[in-house]
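Section handout 9: paired folding examples.
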Amino acid sequence: MRKKIGHMLILASAVFFLFTPMRAEAADSEKIMKIGLYYGTNALPSANLANEVGSGYDLGYYDSDRNFVKIHSISDEKITVMKNKTIYLAGDGLYYDVVPASAKGKIGAYHLQAGTSYPSAEEASAAAKAAADSCGYPAYPAYVDGSYVVRIGSFASADEASSVSADLSAKTGLQLIAVGMSATCYTVTVTGTTNILYEFDNKTPLGIRPRSDSSDSQAWFKGNLYNGGFEYNRISGNDITVVNVVNLSGYIKGVIPYEMNPSWSIEALKAQALCAKSYALSLSGKHRASGFDLCSTDDCQVYRGCSLATENSNNAVDAVDGLAVMYNGIPAQTVFHSSDGGSTEDAKNVWGSDVPYLKAVRDDFEDLQSATNGIWTKTITPALVTTILRNKGYDVSNIVSLYVDQYTDAGNVYSLSVKDSTGKVTSFPRESARTILNSTANGTYVYSMRFTINSGEGTDFYAYNQPISGQSKQYAIGKDQTVRQTKDTAANSSMMTSSGIKKPETNGSSSDVFTISGRGWGHNVGMSQWGAKGMAERGYTYDQILKYYYTGVSISNY
């Protein structure tokens, strides 16, 4: 039965997490964030940097208060940080940790290290230059367990390094031993070469800060320009986790252009800036186990640096400096979405947890004709529904019916059900109603929680058999719950729709389709970005926009 639900108790495990937020009394520019760019299975064997807006880099580490501690400087514009394993340079100028087809050089994981330590990076650099001049091998400064030392060469094995240690010790006057394959070591090279500039072998992750003539340092990484500095961490000695260390203001300036069109009204952009900031503060620490606060994907919120930032979007961020959306004295978890199609939704009806400031509100402000996926239609066959569900681990026979069986008071979908050819019904409540049919492999996507389903002829019934007096009688049940008997013999078996039209029995593998018609894009909870745009264009201010979409919040210092 299709029905509405209102304020009913939902007994389900919550997927809406409230993290302990970081607290601050300072301006956004004074709060330092760590944002994971590449990590986990996406960690890198090597990572390039290009400081095309400044001059060189300072190298060191970030202390427990996230202050940068400088221990060395280099003037090169383009550098690469790599793990301390044998790395191969290919003909395309890229680095690999397996032998490429066009290898033209390699950086060995072993080196000769002098037993002498030096009081400063400058003295270690001078000693390295002298050693290189006297022995003919490349030599470079290294920071090892808190001491400045000299390292020479790069070798494929400890034996190869040891085989030349006596000769090089005699030439340089240094006592040299073979070292290498350290799980805490990072090698810094000139990008596109095997020229080692520096090694950092310390339990503290390597920190690099681009030098700049302005107060804000910037560098290019993977095609994006980032504010702040970088931290490189080899978690468990594996590939390099790359983290952008940036103040909160710089971080938000790198979120806004990817979450909202930077040409939109300044009031809408201010609202978005506060949403992004408050959300970040409420989630800060989500990725603590991986060595950073937040990630750069939509698992947290999209962040790709400041390449697309404009004066308009930056001004919006600066205008709300030091402020956040607050509820009961802490930053609110201000989730947002592209558009809702007419109403937002209670968080409990999407994620299962009741959040007092995430309540459904009617939304008459969106221009759905202009909004991306504001009005949409999808068609999907019963066979494809069957395939998707089976691929996701559901034990279903051929699907013959797909329908919404529960709506919320706000008019959004609460539960989606499927019925298979055996009569078995499987229901998907809350957010799974939107996501269960999503399949990248099959090109299907349900954009929002606000949709209806129209079944084509032949998809609004299912059949069952009932033994009567030794005979198998077959019946069809229409979506209006009418029951009609089909012909007795299997050879002449047919189905009847609820409108009385007979069709051949197909055991649920009909060629008909389900048409899903919807409005909006996203989970429908919190602020609608297209709604914020519409409100701003009607003269509402950023605080009015936020208080409309988030019930009972305040805009104040955090």
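Moving on to protein 2 of 2.
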Amino acid sequence: MNGLMQRLRAGVKQVHGTEAVLAVVVLLVLVYLTIPPLFLMFWKSFVSGISLGTHFSLNGYRSMIENGLSATVVQTLEFALGSTIVTLVIGSIIAWSTIRTDSAMRWLGYVVAFLGFAVPGLVNIIGWIILFGNGSGVGDLWLRHLTGLHLAFNIETLPGMIVMEGLLNVPVVFFLLIGPLRSFNASFEEAAQVHGGRGITVMRKVTIPLLKPVLLSAVILIAIRAIQSFEVPVLLGTPARTSIFTAEIYQSIHSSIIPDYSTAAAFGVVLVAGLIVLLMIETRFTKGTKRFEVISGRGTVDRTTRLGRFRWLPTILNLIILAFFLLPCFYVVLASFQKRIGASIGAGSFTLSNYATLLHTSGFMTAIRDTVEVALLAAIATALLTLLASWVSVRGKGTLARLVNFMANIPLVIPGIVMGFGFLLFYLYSPVPLFGTLLAIGLAFVAMFVPYGIRYVRPALIGISGELEEAARISGASGRHILFKIVLPLVKSSVTGTSLYVFFTSFRELAMASILVTAATPLLSTLLLDQLVNGDLTVVSALGALIFIVSALVGLLAFRFIGFQRVSPVPVPMGDAS
């Protein structure tokens, strides 16, 4: 402990006075947002009952084992592995065909990726449930009418969950791969072909080995996202009677009048431990990345693969994925104007009564106000905190700067449902009266989104020479003027992109919100979940249509600021923020 304090003091001495104070303040804020919730969750896993006493017990872990821990582990791994394979295969094909081939309408790859981030995953899933839920949805009836055959596609199964989660994550792999595929020196492939290598052999022996680090990172990232996933396990897995970790945490809290905090905390501890192991595996496999570096320059060969008569196949795949994202959402919008779900389309089948019912739904207007306030709070606070943390970690030196960067990235490996549960315990037992307030929800959102903002703002700061700030400091400028008059204008687009991304992601965030909201502080996402469980599907469609339209509009605004063909247009999320 004394050694750590000495290194901290040394780190403070290595920066200027104002910057040192700022670094300490940023570090304390990050510690407040991450450590207490996680510590209380770990503590609660060993304390039974509602209170936070000191009587230690293993009842939470016993209950977790009795509830079928082995089945939960197996089904979670099956779900994660299956969806990772689906995501990696389809995402890689779309990225490769967009960047490295002459496929027709290659720009569709970018459209698919952007829509994948803009379309709310919650609304997408609800649309598919209405169309193909339990084998007797509207889509099944349409197929039966068109083909005359009894075709039933039930997505409320483990294979359906795997396909759904896998396709929802395709944009993540696309944005991870387009950068390396663009900068890849194709002269190696050219040399291999000159020596007699065929297309498949060259890809297997040259292309894939050189892309091994990014492919391994993509596999680990998608596996972590699948394990952290919330909407698919809860909305599709509960009817399918599957047992996924995130769904088990939610059920432990909501399945009875008296919530089982100890069991939920035990599930959370085991889940976080497993995710940390995955990150350690990724670090081990990718630490030797210098072995995969290539030297390129003016002589780099820009080689495009000719697909010939198969050049339309990637286009067909893009259109299929595009339909996956848009078809259910468009049907949700259509159903929101129908008198009855599945009714034939005609002049007399449309109505506005669903929206009238929605307007009179208890808590609807409050949910709109609360959602906008929380999203604005999270967007502004996250943008400011990530700007400060990125500046401290990039320009600072020593232990203090490294600690700021480390603390800012801790929530990256914590699922939203686990983070939300940690904040629930923190505010429930904290002497500060924040439990059940919008400020508590907003702070929890900030903690969750800070790592994503860091990944977007920090690279922009690294690309700016520190000499500009040194010149301003020599001229007598204070740290505040340097940060807001010099640094901020240079990274304004990154900060704006981060705030817009956080806003429209907060607008439909469900995992964390489902744990923290109360009857006095409803959000649109949790109101949609409640209506799906207890309400009319036509009203659910009206609310889903509203969320979809607002998310799409804000998403278009975000992409307007971020740019259409940037290598990394949005921060790639680890947790489920769809």
